[in-house]
Amino acid sequence: MAGEVVALTQALITGVLLGGMYALMSSGLSLIFGVMDIANAAQATFAVLAAYIAYWMQTLYGIDPFIGMVTSAIALFLIGVALYKYMVSRVRGLMAFALLYMLAMFLENTMIFTWTNLYRGIRVDYLTKSIGFSGIYVPLDRLVGFLIAITGFGILSYFLKYSYLGKAIRATMQNPTAASLMGINVRFIYLFSFGLGIALSGFAGTILGIVYSFNPTVADEWIGVMFAIVVFGGLGSLMGTFIASMIIGIVTSLVGTYASLIWSPLIAFAILVITLWVKPSGLMGRKI
Amino acid sequence: MTRYLTKARVAILAALVLLALVPIVSPEVFYIDFLLLLFMYTIVAAGWNIIGGYTGYYSFGHTSFFGLGAYTTAILISKLGISPFITFPLGGLVAAVFAFVIGYPTLRLKGAYFAIATLSLSFALQILALNLTPITGGGEGISLPLPPWDIRTTITIIYYIMLVVYVATIGTTYLLEKSRIGLALKCIRDDELAAESVGIPTTLMKFIAFLLSAFFPGVAGGIFAYYATYIDPPTVFNPGISMFAIVFSMFGGAGTVTGPVIGSAILFTVDLLARYTITVPGFDLMVFSAVAVIIILFIPKGLVGILREKTGVRIP
């Protein structure tokens, strides 16, 4: 293949893989945002916590990170439920955002306090290789991360679309009052959705820890991008979140390849500002 | 009521005289330094209070304005040799112009959307400052020429400048509180639709609030750059500054004149004590954010709000 084609293909593949990572990171945020209109500023910080859980399980007890991933997802579900029951349900809207932002700061600094600011990475021996053909390389860990993202998204969409609980969640999303009149326990739906949303960052965080190196402050870099994705994709639409992740991932990768790596971190913010300016409801969202 | 107000005025005057005397009386530079930084955070908090407290638009990126002011001063002094007394207000103006530019897309947003937009913009500015190396010096930051005086004189001079801006910021908030504009802002906070329907020019009012709210932190940022003689993106575009502004104001009482003043005085001291007692990184912000969570959950009206309810006096 000609050099330019290889470079373009490589940039596109990297972009799609990055998009998968973005989609996984943003799915929980999108769910919580969509169902209860709460902007969970702590979502990325919980993902980092999940990365630490998987990291310590591997480092201290030699447990495979993929088992660690499930464990941290369960742990985060419980944390999420408790958090919603005792704190988040007391406030709403803007104050919920402020509360979760402060909780994120608390969690982040507690992690810095206990585990320091050192960069760490979860090492998975069987995933350190790359698949290569005709000069194009696909790192195996990113590919697995992408597949998990796709599978997770598929399961989540199926669950929301066809299961009884999923239908109840979507009904609550559309109109909480009407849903409660139809006999749906809206408080339980909120509790469950919040826990589920946080639990999703358990998967995302572990993959994050495998693919990238992390320390407690990387959450700050992620949360801005994640908000950009959810707003761009449109509130309450998982499909929108997925498409937005792919677009931002691919554009970021293309800009990094053809313009300069300097500008690629700004892509998400530029898209966020343009979205809020031109069409605040995003690609597929309902009107706000 | 009149007697109460006169008493309050006497107290404020006495406090001001005391603050003005500190550099003359204080044996140690440490106390002047402490008060100088306290003024700085109070200015940012009081600035935030105009858009956040009075208007109900919670900016989570006030560090943008602080950082822009700091960079304006640093660049103008180090590259063009302009006098700091000109660059300080210029920094405020640059911050206000930035507020004007971002105000157009963001001030139409409600609640958490405005918070997200301002938060993201402050991240974006930090990345820009890191990457526009020819102008900002990138990650290496900018070193400013040292002021021509000895340390004590320098700190004393900067102290007085900061004190003037501090008084100006609080004074502006007080005038705002007493004016029709302040009333309009509070209307917007309580119910924007209703405010608009009774004829308040909401867009104009929000812009006035946002510009004022950006100006003072911009000036404070410039003074900080001159005081620190070195700035880099993580220091002046620090999300921690935005957080301090919000929490200081909320603790004292968002949407009141005295709130940010009281809140900053107490919490800045607490933060300093936490930082000096246990020096492990992260500890002070851990304590600080825990306090912030408690404030949001249990005393959202702040100390002034509680005092108003308890005493029945409408403290400004």
Plain-language structure description:
The complex is a heterodimer of chains A (288) and B (316). Chain A has 288 residues and is mostly helical. Chain A is built from 11 helices and 2 strands, in the order H-H-H-H-E-E-H-H-H-H-H-H-H. Chain A has helices at residues 3-36, 43-61, 65-86, 93-115, 140-162, 164-174, 176-181, 186-211, 218-233, 238-258, 264-278; strands at residues 130-133, 136-139. In chain A, strands 1-2 form a two-stranded antiparallel sheet. In chain A, helix 5 (140-162) packs across helix 6 (164-174). The relative contact order of chain A is 0.20. The mean pLDDT of chain A is 88. Chain B has 316 residues and is mainly α. Chain B has 15 helices and 2 strands. In chain B, helix 2 packs antiparallel against helix 10, helix 2 packs across helix 12 and helix 12 packs across helix 13. The radius of gyration of chain B is 19 Å and the shape is globular. The relative contact order of chain B is 0.17. Chain A binds chain B through residues 38-39, 41, 87, 90-91, 93-99, 101-103, 105-106, 108-113, 116-117, 216, 220-221, 224, 227-228, 231, 262-263, 265-266, 269-270, 272-273, 276-277, 280, 288, and chain B through 56, 58, 60, 102, 104-106, 108-113, 115-117, 119-121, 123-124, 127-128, 131, 239, 243, 246-247, 250, 280-283, 285-286, 288-290, 292-293, 296-297, 300.
